[in-house]
Specification:
Blueprint (H helix, E strand, L loop, with lengths): L4 H21 L12 H5 L20 E5 H7 L4 H5 L5 E4 L5 E4 L4 H4 L3 E5 L2 E5 L15 E8 L3 H4 L6 E7 L6 E11 L3 E12 L2 E21 L4 E20 L2 E13 L14 E16 L5 E16 L10 E17 L4 E14 L8 E15 L4 E14 L8 E12 L4 E12 L3 H5 L1 E2 L3 E2 L7 E13 L3 E20 L7 E21 L4 E14 L12 E10 L3 E10 L22 E14 L3 E10 L7 E3 L10 E3 L5 E9 L1
Parallel strand pairs: 4-7, 22-25
Antiparallel strand pairs: 1-6, 2-3, 4-5, 6-7, 8-9, 8-33, 9-10, 10-11, 11-12, 12-13, 13-14, 14-15, 15-16, 16-17, 17-18, 18-19, 19-20, 20-23, 21-22, 23-24, 24-25, 25-26, 26-27, 27-28, 28-29, 29-30, 30-33, 31-32
Length: 661
């Protein structure tokens, strides 16, 4: 059982309380403030799986959608809190702030997930910067999340998962605003605001986020004194996101500066150095869409990404070591899409990518260039059966140190069969890759780590079968998957006496699992969703649970919404994590074990109408209602030889004022 008896009692109490409120409110004549019914939401086209609009039912991918309504009903202050509600997705918060999919590891998962902002890649989600805490939630219209490979259309890093953040656009002329102020536990202060404008063919959006978390107590143990000490895990975010669209031309500019606590694992306490991370990031994208006719369209994109990772120690150790790693990605991409016939659709594309690392402290300046061709064709064999074929060929044009050019080909095959108006069976086989970074090829940290110039790409092959069911009020999916990973880039003992460790293609992992997902619009006011996952993995030596992730998870959300009140409860329940002794038999048992945990959140809101058209909402949100102490395995004991790290904050309460006009 994932839930303990005590936790079950809390869970049942909350559910009973909400159902009692429902019974007392059934006679109310207030209309639900749902903008759309579940049926309308399910019929909203998704675009991430094929870069073309298609129904969720016809999309041949394991894809989940988080709507604007779910964000408002269940709460959350950061993107990772939304993503972790998706089946098979987990997160940790703190030094990494990472998500994992289907049991992947947090540290490597930073490079094996691809984030998209309105369909454009934000660059890899490495330690340099990520979207998990830096995007204004008020700007999000919906999130589409693909579990599994996505490299056929999105290239490197679209390996374990791809998520696409689709931002809000004004639907009527004039100004619209959605602005919130939040204060609460851990000395938290947040301003999250979006301002939309539309006039004829011109539309614009200004999205702003300022978040200052003074810090939650990240507790670790001093092995020399056997006493516990804590440090404040602080984090500050400043984000400005501008979107301008005029007819077929669109410009997006995203600027974020992220500063956060960099380590709470140092022990003994006397050796503690207060490292912090500074992560400035700039994303600029220019898109032009040319429509030849009602059928064919050419999309042209230029994307420029600049990120910096800089570690400092308030001067204590900066004179000896200061880690700084700026990099730049420039991407030029074209894709052509349309219908060859009433049964056949086609997408073809090409891109050129230029990567540059410069002025880094432990990585020499480097430039790399890649080019790719990709295509995908979908054919309706019969009204019930459709086939999807796709592939991407990518090759290097320039690699560091005159390394011989490397290339990869990744295919995708999908079959969908509609059993009737509600049931569909989907089959999918896909491959994905992750290019080694310039840092992995060339890093030189004396006495610690060196890169390997001729590293090959990591690859994953995944086969999935999904049973899909959809009606006007319900959605159910059951997915079986099996994945094989090869040439994983891992740190291994170095043959060079000047370095302890070296990056090598030396890992293979086999994994499989089952995912269950269910959503139900119970009444006009009540909505519920739940999911469950079981997964297993092992390496080529037969060592099981090598990724250390929980084998089982259960998630449940229940919400109520009428014209005045809104309540939302969400439970994330995980079985125990696995011991990192498989990585390092000599790791120290310093911190508590990574037991399973139940993460329960509750949000209550009261809405007030102001001047007929405007709305003021007062919300109270409680996180970690069961006050769990959450530790997760340290999956990099090669650097820090201890068993676990503190991963989540304690019980916290937050008060928000939201004003819309």
């Amino acid at each position: 059982m994932i839930l303990s008896k005590r936790r079950c009692s809390y869970f049942l109490f909350m559910s009973a309380a909400m159902l009692t409120f429902s019974a007392a409110s059934q006679d109310d004549v207030f209309e639900s403030l749902f903008d759309m019914s579940l049926e309308e939401l399910l019929n909203t086209p998704v675009i991430t799986a094929s870069k073309q609009a298609e129904s969720l039912r016809n999309s041949n991918a394991s894809i989940s959608v988080i709507s604007r309504q779910q964000i408002e009903q269940f709460g959350g202050h950061s993107l990772y809190e939304l993503l972790e509600r998706i089946v098979s997705v987990n997160s940790n918060y703190g030094v990494l702030t990472a998500i994992t999919t289907r049991g992947s590891k947090p540290w490597t998962g930073l490079l094996q997930h691809l984030g998209l902002l309105n369909g454009r890649p934000f660059g890899n989600l490495s330690g340099a910067h990520n979207l998990y805490t830096s995007i204004a939630l008020s700007s999000i219209e919906r999130i589409e999340y693909i579990r599994g490979p996505g490299s056929v259309l999105y290239g490197t890093n679209a390996y374990q998962g791809v998520f696409n953040i689709i931002t809000r656009q004004s639907k009527s002329d004039g100004w619209q605003a959605n602005q919130s102020i939040t204060v609460g536990s851990f000395d938290s202060q947040t301003i999250d605001a979006s301002y939309l404008y539309k006039q004829d063919d011109l539309s614009a959006a200004i999205n702003v986020l300022y978040s200052d978390v003074g810090g939650w107590d990240a507790q670790t143990t001093d092995p020399t004194t056997l006493t516990t000490f804590s440090k404040k895990a602080f984090q500050e975010e400043k984000t400005l996101h501008l979107d301008v669209n005029y007819k077929a031309l669109s410009l997006s500019h995203f600027r974020s500066v992220q500063q956060k606590f960099a380590n709470f694992w140092d022990a003994p306490q006397a050796n503690y150095i207060p490292w912090s991370k500074l992560h400035p990031s700039t994303f600029t994208n220019l898109t032009y869409r040319y429509r030849f006719d009602n059928n064919w369209q050419l999309d042209s994109h230029y994307t420029n990404i600049k990120k910096v990772m800089e570690w400092s120690s308030e001067g204590i150790a900066d004179a000896f070591i200061r880690i700084k790693s700026p990099f730049n990605i420039r991407l030029l991409e074209f894709n052509l899409s349309g219908d060859l016939s009433d049964k056949t659709s086609l997408l073809v594309g090409a891109y050129h990518e230029h990567r540059r690392v410069y002025d880094a402290t432990t990585i020499p300046d480097a430039k790399e260039r890649y080019a790719s061709l990709y295509a995908q064709i979908k054919y309706a064999v019969t009204p019930k059966l459709s086939v999807e074929l796709g592939g991407q060929y990518v090759t290097s044009l320039e690699l560091i140190n005159n390394i011989d050019n490397q290339s990869d080909f990744v295919p995708r095959l999908g079959l969908s069969y509609h059993l009737d108006d509600a049931w569909t069976v989907k089959f999918r086989h896909a491959k994905a890759f992750r290019h080694p970074s310039s840092g992995e090829r060339t890093i030189e940290t004396p006495g610690i780590q060196k890169g390997t110039p001729d590293l090959s790409s990591e690859t994953i092959n995944t086969t999935e079968v999904q049973l899909f069911y959809q009606t006007g009020e319900q959605l159910f999916t059951a997915t079986l998957y099996k994945s094989e990973e090869h040439d994983l880039i891992l740190l291994r003992p170095s043959d060079d006496p000047n370095f302890a460790l070296e990056n090598k293609n030396s890992g293979e992992i086999s994994s499989h699992g089952i995912e269950l997902e269910y959503k139900h619009q119970l009444t006009a006011h009540w909505y519920a969703e739940m999911s469950a996952t079981h997964q297993r993995n092992e390496d080529k030596q037969g060592t099981e649970n090598i990724n250390l992730s929980p084998n089982n998870s259960f998630k449940f959300g229940l919400s109520y919404d009428d014209s005045r009140w809104q309540f939302g409860m969400y439970l994330l329940s995980y079985s125990k994590y696995h011991d990192n002794i498989s990585f390092d038999p000599n790791r120290a048992l310093v911190n508590p074990p990574a037991n399973g945990y139940d993460w329960l959140t509750f949000k209550a809101s009261r809405k007030f109408t102001v001047n007929t058209d405007n709305q003021l909402t007062v919300s109270l949100e409680i996180k970690n209602l069961l006050d769990e102490s959450v530790y997760q395995p340290n999956d990099t004991p090669v650097f820090y030889p201890i068993n676990t790290l503190p991963a989540r904050e304690d019980l916290g309460a937050f008060l928000s004022l939201n004003y819309k006009f």
